[in-house]
Amino acid sequence: MTDETLPTVRLRPKANARAIRHGFPWVYADELVTDRRTKALAPGSLVRLEDAERAPLGVATVNPNSKIIARMLDADPGAVIDRGWLAARLARALALRETLFDAPFYRLVHAEADGLPGVVIDRFGDAAVIQPNAAWADRLLPDLAAALAEVTGVTRIVMNGSGRARGLEGLAERTEVIAGAIDAPVEVPMNGAIYLADLTGGQKTGLFYDQRPNHAFAQRLARGGRVLDVFSHVGGFGLAALAGGAESATCVDGSAAALALAQGGARAMGAEGRLTTRQGDAFAVMEALAAEGARFDVVICDPPAFAPSKQALEAGLRAYERTARLAAPLVAPGGTLGLCSCSHAATLDLFRNASARGIGRGGRRMQLLHTGFAGPDHPMLPQLAESGYLKALFFRLDG
């Protein structure tokens, strides 16, 4: 489509057109003129966006069912959003990852920060998982998958249509293999460890690449020590610690399937004898370990997003404080407590304060050693705070 064939939508006078011109990628529902014609546009439609004075801002996509009613795709109002355009964006993303990593295991596309709003793509060697979390990407999925195969050479592609973001867009949940065959978990090498990623039935895309640099930091601290990995998923911190020479690792998670994958990863590494697992509610397991007198040199807690929205912020901060309070007594004197948050609503300051309160209420004194964030395959769009969601705090505990 060219700009002549696209319908036009317009910002309201009070909308911040300057922010759009400077790279902010979203238009909220109360910022757009939503007349009958605009409301009738199908979710994911491509449009020409103008400011209130009818000056062009570029090509966007609209979803009248979403609070984010428009997402910017290209500042060029004449841009043609087709397979070639998608391939160019993917090639740009691939060039960055190939500079950063020696092996094709990484987040290939990190949504708005890579110029593909609402799209997440994780790569697992010759396989990739696409999360089309915006209506436009759902509509263009065949072209997106074809461009992905063309640019990267992957032969197996999974569409993972699950999660909160799709619900906010009014999209149905579905997961399907759209190219090749996925008949077993995929082995993923990272930080010297081997992880097993379930690309069709696992959580999100099957593995969390964002913690890679934080795994590496914890790995150094865990050499020769005993490690507790709480909310471990497939063994993120625990397996990294074992690969770095930890004496032992205990993984705690509510999912038996995730713990089985952690055990499979340890087996593939030849470290099965140094890994133990405990299935159950993480808070209950931490309380039980404290009652047993268990102590570890490194304790890591990497929970799901306790504060996925501003409405959930206060409850989420209490949950982070509770996590720190229960974890702190499990750390041996002089040991390390790592606390993570993937909640964009919980800013670094709020999360750090909640963690420090919890550690203090757990009866421990602390010093903050290191603050970690997502790896560089999860670039942040500076204009969009939500793209910088991950925080990892590493405390040394005394007393």
UniProtKB/TrEMBL annotation:
All copies of domain RlmI-like PUA, residue ranges: 9-73
SUPFAM superfamilies: PUA domain-like (SSF88697), S-adenosyl-L-methionine-dependent methyltransferases (SSF53335)
Subcellular location: Cytoplasm
Gene Ontology terms describing biological process: methylation
Main location as per UniProt: cytoplasm
This protein's record includes keyword S-adenosyl-L-methionine: yes
Domain S-adenosylmethionine-dependent methyltransferase: 187-396
Domain of life where this protein originates: Bacteria
GO (cellular component) term, any one: cytoplasm
UniProt-recorded name of the protein: SAM-dependent methyltransferase
Entry-linked InterPro entries: PUA-like_sf, PUA_sf, RlmI-like_PUA, SAM-dep_methyl-trfase, SAM-dependent_MTases_sf
